[in-house]
Structure formats: C-alpha cells, structure tokens
Amino acid sequence: MSTLPPSIPEFSDAEVDALRQRYRAERERRVRPDGSAQYARAEGGFGYYAEDPHAEEFDREPLHDRVEAIVLGGGFGGLCAGARLRQAGLERIRIIEKGGDFGGTWYWNRYPGIHCDIESYVYLPLLEEVGYVPKWKYSPGEEIRQHAMAIGRTFDLYRDACFQTGVTELQWDDGEWIVRTDRGDEMRATYVVVSNGTLDHPKLPGIPGIGSFRGHTFHTSRWDYGYTGGGPDGGLDGLADKRVAIIGTGATAIQVVPHVARDAAQLHVFQRTPSSVDVRDNRPTDPEWAASLEPGWHARRRENFQAVVTGRPAEVDLVDDAWTASANVLGKIIATDARADWDVDEWERVEELLDFEKMNRLRARVEEVVDDPATAELLKPWYRYGCKRPTFSDEYLKAFNRPNVALVDTADHGGVERFSENSVVVGGQEYEVDCVIFATGFEVGKSDVMTGRLPVHGRDGTRLLDAWRETGVRTLHGFCCNGFPNLFHLGALQNAPSVNFVHVLDEQAIHVGEVIAAARERGVKCVEPAVEAEIDWVATIEATSPERAWFDAECTPGYYNNEGAARPRRTFGPGPAVFQQLLRDWRSGDGIDEVLGDAN
Ligand code: NDP
C-alpha cells in the first residue's frame, strides 16, 4: 500500500473554511453568463489581428497532384507526423500550413520575452534525430522555431510543403483523399493526418468599442515590432514615449510584461484573474552535461518528466523544476495509480491541504517581491493550483515595483468594460493609452475539423460532424474513425493528454507512422477501425475518464474549465504513460488487426 506524502500540512477547520470561502467568492466575482461567447474571433472585421507579420504573401499556381501523405499543420504535431511518416518509408509527404514556415505556435508567437515554459530538453521533439541539445533549460522562442525548421530540413519536409495555404475540404474518393485548399489546389493523397488547431486562432475579448479605439492595437501572437521596435530579446525603443495597455495576465503576458515595463513610458496591465507565478530559474545548458548524454537520453528524460507530472512511479526526478516540484509537493495531484489504494475522501482532503500550502507559498512569494501591499494583494491567486495554467517567472512580479507600471484590477467588472477613442475603460474610469496589446490567448484545442470549419466527407459522402452528431464522437484511440479510412487525428481527442503536449503529439505521430508502415507492409489499402472497436474504445474512455468535474466547477473561469461552465473531460483516465504502452501493445499484438483487417 502507498504511504501518504511525508508531511501533511496542518490547517485548522477555520482556516480551511476561510480559504474555501475565499476561493468561492473569487470565482463568483468572475463567472460571466456569456461564458465562452464573450470572445471574438480574429476574423471578418477583426481579421487583421490574425494577419501574418512574418512573411510576404506569394502567388503560386494551384496544385493538382498526388502525394502519399498530406499532413495538416506545420507545428510540432505536424512535423512529428512528417518525420515519423518519413521513418515509415513514405517518399512524398506534404505538410500544408497557414503560416509562412514551420513552427506552428512558435512561428506565430515571437513576442518579447517568449520562452518555452516547459524544460526544453523534454519539450522539443526529435532532438537526437536532429542532433541538437538546446542551449538553455527553457529555450527562447527563436531557438524553438529554428529547431522546428531543422526538423523540416532533417526529414526533407520542405520539398513538398505548402505554406500560406489553408485546407478547405477533405473528401474521400475511391481509395484516396482529395484535399482542397484556399489556393484552388486539389491534391490527392493516400493518407491524411490532421494536426492543427491547438493554439492556432487568436481570440479577442468582445469588448464594446474595440473597433473605435484610435490608437495602435495588436495581439501578442502577431507582435508588431514595426511599432514597438526591438525584438524577442527586448529593446522596444519604439515604446519609449508611449502609454501602453496590456490586456490579460496569462502565460503569455507573464513573459511580455517585464519587457514592456522596462521600455514603455507607461504601462497599465489590465488583470481579471492573476496567474500563479512560480520560480523560473532559467540557466544555460552545461556543456559537460550535454557532452555526457548517452543515446536514448531524450526519450528517457521525456518519459521521466511525464511520469513525475502525472503521478507515475519514478525513481528520480531528472527535470527537477517548479513543474515537477509542484507535482511532487502536491502528492502527485493528478495521480491515478498512486492514490488507487486510498479512500477517495481522505485523499481529496490531503490533496486540498497540500494545495492550500502550495498556493499559500505562491501568495507569500507575491508579498515578498511586490513592494506596494495593495498591488501585491491584487496579484495573489485565490484558487487551487492548476485551475489556471501555472506560470513561472523571476521577472514578472518585480515589474510592478517600477514607477511607470500600474496594475488595473478588472475582476468586478467582468474584465475591461469598453474602449473609447483613446482609452481603456474599467469601472467607469478611463485610462488613456497610445497602444493596446491583447494578451488574451487562443481558441485552445479546437481543430477546424472539430469546429466544422473544415468539412470532412468520408465514405459515401458522409460528413464527419454529421456522423458524430448521430453517434456521439466515436474514434479508436482518438485517431481514426469508421467511414473515414486513412484519416488520422492528432490532439487531445479521446486519448491521454499531459502538460508536455508536444511529447503527447510525438507519441501519437510514432503510433500513426507505425500503423501506416504495417499497412504498407501487409498491402492493406484502407486503415479503418470497425464500429465495434470504436464503441469499445468510447466505453473505455467513459469508464476511466477522471471524475474532475467538481474540481473544474470550483475554479475561477478560464479556458481550462470552459469559462466556468465546466464540462466533463473525456480522456483516458490511467494517463499518458499507460495509454502509450497500451498503443505499443496494441501495435505489436492482434489489436492492430482492428484497423488493418485483411489485405484489401
Ligand atoms: P490565456 O488564455 O491563458 O490568457 C488570456 C488572458 O486574457 C487571461 O488572463 C484572461 O483573464 C485575460 N482576458 C480575457 N478577456 C479579458 C477581458 N475582457 N478583460 C481583461 N482580461 C481579459 O492566454 P495566453 O496567451 O496567456 O496563454 C495561452 C496558452 O498558451 C497557455 O495556457 C499555454 O498553454 C500556452 N503558452 C505556452 C507557453 C510555453 O512556453 N509553452 C508560453 C505562453 C503561452 P481570465 O484569466 O480572467 O480569463
């Protein structure tokens, strides 16, 4: 039987009640009746917020050709798919990407201060294949983008790539897919892998007057260096005489604020919910350590990180940072196996106490760093750890000690209320600014297939979303569906996500690559699960999906809990490590016959 974590923090009943009440009150202050509908998409009249500042538009003739595989999305998911398909022996692999180059979210996001907030030795994929060891424990965005491009070169993925191209329709036609695009292309491919949409579409708050503000505005994912000057390392000299507003205080703003604070004449940070801000402690890679790495180091380290943050047994904590410390300190809060022997109520009581202790430490950190007590009070996060994406910075909180920086709390007003021609308005007070920077995030995890923006017509012309409307979402392992042969979805659908999402995507890409390799070896033309296999998998998801709706329901609103209107997450409960092993066993055993059947 497992033992409880070594020390259970002591809280009196009164302290527990007070914290619970405070959390509830802070949530109530922020829940909005319009939920996710409060946001506007960066399209139509706001389309310019999503324009590409990094590449010149170019013309090309529409393509009417045939390749072996088409991958939608040139971010790390698509690149991993491309690489793994190359390893599976495919010659013609075409990645189709809306941006002007590979990198996905790292192509779009180049804001000052941009860094990976997960250790780069576990976050960046295909490090050994490319022969690269990141230069920092937490890589700057440009290093990550360069690595994405290096993957493209290493696996010869530029040859057939189509950039600045959006796929508009997928249609199954007599044994292959027709892929239509917004450039008039009509390409054919045996296999299609969909890997787009995770942090793709910038979103804006639907604030009245947003269109009538006369100053300069842009979204952090399309940083306008033409206006601010400088680059991702800072030096924003164009802001020296500017009054700037940053709206939002999520993981992006935490990285941006210190730079704008340093360089702008005046900065107002408009906060609705404060982030939890833990220690960063970035440092350059030790060259001796890099030289000592043995083959297989990358997979071992990734698996170790995954084990620690998902509460799996791990003898060592190789990454040993604030992510893993939190998972350890909280008694592996997301643990599944680790708490299996415990009475649920008892475990949840202990978990809550550890959580209070962790969050108290983070709130104390705010008090230690921020000089002005009133500002410090506003910056304290009052919710359970993980309600919002945890953030890490040794600079963010300090920025509020600068005389040119002010924090504006918008919590009681549902956020920024409106814009006038020259101001941001909160609680009836006008804050005159020259420039508004939206650090308001993305539509997270909604691929165009799932939203219906990209219609997918399978066998007999059936539309995927229509099929799912009748049966509920039905896949085998989250990847493939009956009636839609040779089509693979990467992402969080009906499988086991984790914080190191690129690792999850790479494991998925490995799986898809090996399934396709097996199909080719056996001369199977259509990879397609039987309906029964899908039904069994959905039953597995239903039976194991973690019952965390109560946790989401008590959190302050945000995209993690569908803006406070929590909906059950449908994921594989035992977690990513067990899921990945399940896939390996499935591939090496009879399971794979479920999608390959007889040679056809
Ligand atoms: P988020 O969605 O996390 O944050 C958006 C922010 O905008 C929130 O603080 C939100 O407040 C605020 N906001 C929205 N509407 C209003 C309004 N009307 N008035 C005032 N404030 C408003 O977006 P981010 O870009 O910060 O992060 C998105 C994701 O990107 C992260 O969760 C993370 O997964 C990823 N990321 C990863 C990094 C990495 O290194 N791997 C680095 C940066 C981001 P509220 O919380 O109250 O809704």
Automatic annotation (TrEMBL):
InterPro entries: FAD-binding_Monooxygenases, FAD/NAD-bd_sf. SUPFAM superfamilies: FAD/NAD(P)-binding domain (SSF51905). The keyword Oxidoreductase applies. Its cofactor is FAD. Keywords: FAD, Flavoprotein, Monooxygenase, NADP, Oxidoreductase. One of its GO terms (molecular function) is oxidoreductase activity, acting on paired donors, with incorporation or reduction of molecular oxygen, NAD(P)H as one donor, and incorporation of one atom of oxygen. Gene3D superfamilies: FAD/NAD(P)-binding domain. Coiled coil: none annotated. Belongs to the FAD-binding monooxygenase family. This is NAD(P)/FAD-dependent oxidoreductase. It comes from Saccharopolyspora terrae.
